Amino acid sequence: MPRPPSQTLSPMDFSDLARAFFALLLTLGLVGLLAVTIYLLVPGVTAIMAARAASNPQLKSLAGAVGAGALVAGICSLTFDSLSFPVFALTYPVLVGLGGAVWIMTKTEIKTNVPTSQTRIDDFEADGRKLLGGQPWIQ
């Protein structure tokens, strides 16, 4: 039954929608939909970019696996309401964190020109002070 233009639509009116992003658009608005889409797709894309830039084969494999998992999760989340499932809502942030860790490891590998597997904690500077022999740098 058609609605008069003065009434607003609610997500309950669209219970038969097959795609969750329409419900997100109705509940969060365009800015919210864009933010959720960025949250779901950017970690996978950055992990894939890190995999392409890494020279260490182990880091390249880890970055590729994390990127693939994050991209699959993000793309699937745009087709159904995956954030309503507690297991997904708890494991996807782990993939986001792993993607960030892989990005930092790749960035360090490129910056130092040394594969990540060969770097040690005492090779880096923190706050301008050299970490020597595993000594704590906070005094």
Describe the structure.
With 139 residues, the chain is an all-alpha fold. It has one domain (16-130). It is 59% helix and 3% strand. The chain has helices at 20-53, 57-77, 86-112, and strands spanning 125-126, 129-130. Strands 1-2 form a two-stranded antiparallel ribbon. A hairpin with a 2-residue loop joins strand 1 and strand 2.
Concise overview:
This protein has 139 residues and is an all-alpha fold. The chain has helices spanning 20-53, 57-77, 86-112, and strands at 125-126, 129-130.
Q: How do the SSEs run, as a string of H and E?
A: HHHEE
Put simply, the count of helices is 3
Shape: elongated
Taking Cα atoms only, what radius of gyration do you get, to the nearest Å? 21 Å
Could you say how many structural domains there are in total?
A: 1
What class do helices, strands and sheet pairing give? Answer: mainly alpha
Mean pLDDT: 76
Please give the number of β-strands.
2
Largest β-sheet summary: 2 strands, antiparallel
Instruction: Show unreliable segments.
Output: 135-139
Strand order of the largest sheet: 1-2
Distance between the termini: 71 Å
- What share of the residues does DSSP label as strand, in percent? under 5%
Helix content bin: 55-70%
